[in-house]
Structure formats: C-alpha cells, structure tokens
Amino acid sequence: MEKEIEEYLKNQNCRGCYNRCQLSNPMCGRSRVFIKDAIEKFNAKKEQ
Hints:
mainly alpha
C-alpha cells in the first residue's frame, strides 16, 4: 500500500508556494498539510 500512496502523491502538486512540487518529493515544510490531505483522500477512495 505504501507504494500505491507514493504513486498517488507523484500525481499531486503542493500548493504551499510557487514551486508546485510533487507531493512525493516536496522542497519545503509547507507541503505537510497537503500531503496529509492527499493521503486522507487516497484512503477514502480505497474504502469505497
């Protein structure tokens, strides 16, 4: 499952600054909130 989450995060971009990094490889600490949200959405999709 860890691999699936990593693949999902590769397709998601951080909105914390102008860099718009992939959530799988963030460049700043602001991404933590967006990573948490993305993982929650991923888990919600898996439960359906």
